[in-house]
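#data-curation
PF: Archiving a pair of folding outputs for the training set. Convention for this channel: one message per protein, sequence first, structure tokens after, nothing in between. First:
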Amino acid sequence: MTPEVRQQPQPAVHVARTVDPLRERTMRSLIIGVVAALVLTVVGALGTDQAPIGLRLGYWLAVVLPGSLLGLLMAYAVQSWGRLEGRPLLETLLVSVMVAVPHTFIVVVASTLMFGFNAITPSLIGWFGVVVLFVSLVLTAINFATSPKLVIVAAPVSAPVAPAPQPQFETPPIPVGPPTMPVSLAERLPVRLQSGRLLALEAEDHYLRVHTDLGSDLVLMRMVDAIAMLIDVPGARVHRSWWVARGAVDGASSDAGRTVLRLTGVLEVPVSRAAKPELVAAGWL
């Protein structure tokens, strides 16, 4: 995040992934899985070319689609963990391995039903495991490549009123206390929270949890749309799933490479590795 500047309105930019709704991710994974199954059917991969095309298609759909759903689940778990953010190759490898272990047994069962193996031996399971891991790597990489790329999320800051000439750049004082809730955001919340002061926004799939000093609640909207309502509220996108009001920060701590912000009350917010240098430069940490 660049420091807020009391000058002409400038976007305090932060590079972060946009929130990818669960429905969109599921549909994309299933479409990629169906396309992969069709390609494997047409080429008769792994010796399936001797089977009738209808049986072949059924086999590959039964093999690939469970893997697509497993991949979606494992990717969500790894991204929620957050320790590999900014390391797409390691993230892809970990997701692929997590998918390959259970998916290997699905493939063994489906292949046994179709081809009628006399016995399921360790060597047979090992061979299928290698094949499943390779396919998982390919499909996971395709899913990651077709996911929304890193985008610039602008969080504009307000212009000052300064009658006297000022230096070209001036860092404003750190706001004291959580900011008042903008009306456009407050009206989406229950009445009990509308008079609260804003602490943070947290993405939960395609919902947004609004944290205030009076409690929190979910609203159906995207993070980028909520940030657009906060044009006059100093704050920053500190993580893929978190926006934090500057005045709500009470302190920060780091442990084993993991940095968290302590907000007013008991709320703790993770700081992504990508955001940390910019937060340090802006005086947050």
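PF: Second:
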Amino acid sequence: MKPRKKKAKELVLPHSQAKLDLYQTYLGKFLTILSLAQFTTAVNIYDIFCGTGIYKDEKFGSPILAYNSIVRTKRLFNSRNWKLKPLKLIINDGEAEKVDKVRNYLERMTKVCNFEFHNKDSEEIIGILKKQIAKQSSTIRNLILIDPYGYKEIHKGDIDSLMRKKNTEILLFLPVAQMYRFSTVAQKENTTNTGYIRLKEFIEDFFHETHAIRNNQITDIFHYISEIESALTLGKYYSSSYYIQRDKSNYYALFFLTPNLFGLEKILGAKWQLDEYRGEGYKLEGDQLGLFDDVDNKAKYKKKLKVLKKDLTEFLAEKKRSNRGLYEFTLLKSFLPKHTNELLRGWQSKQQLEVRFVSDDTEAPPRAFYINYRNYKSQEPKVYYILKLNN
């Protein structure tokens, strides 16, 4: 008799681990930054589809990883005599036994934060969240992990309501390969399949009638992910995506939504930390080149940086650009300030770039580009750039 194949819900499979790695990496940054922020008074972490929490291979799911991140942050703050802001971990799942399992584990642990447990369906828990956030002070910060069992729970109006106060960030996990594969058939008027109907509702909610997804004009899965990423901004927020390969033809994706550029920079930092040569996502190890990994990865990085160089050249050539504009441009292209600085240093070393202070039009010191959030949020541009590639 063949051994029974383990179900994905019983084990943390590689693609699930990649999702959890990004969540945990970002969560560490999120907790540290907000606990040090002067105007933050409290931090809430919402895990509204918590799942099992502890798997048969003894690996941890998202609620336990969140707790562990809080423990590490508290240890860091204690070691430096910093004061940690009040933290609350809110756990929910539609299956009571999963919530109970997580609760039983966490309530045995050292209490480093407050806990709140719910056993609600998606519509009810999102309704609770919307009411809680609407009543909050603007100094309270929230991170919401939405890891549903599909896409039927995701609605444009809910996302807007959760983020409208601009004190909330969302990490959303979607089965994009399945969505991409069935988008065309789901939009047929005579479909009666429940799954297709829910996908059709998602598509019609987020995409206008002339959109490429509505008209079967998507070139591949990565194009599909990009279009969802763009739609989730709702024209007023920032977003980023991280693809996760499950098998040769099956991808998932994590989508991050934030109301501010600093949040976008931190999730991009997490992405580039986990995928240091492309900052895009997770691919199965079997797709790599073994002994030639290092050479291949360096080539991928050069190719990626070449794209930024082309876009940056055009951006700087259009008109006088400031450090504030360049910081935003860099992040919206899914790169970090260090990548733009690398290119600017190259141009400067060849005397192809001038950097001048806005205040008195004097030349800035070498390698001083001021591309960071601190200089961005000051509102006033500090320097501007003159690119002279034709000289």
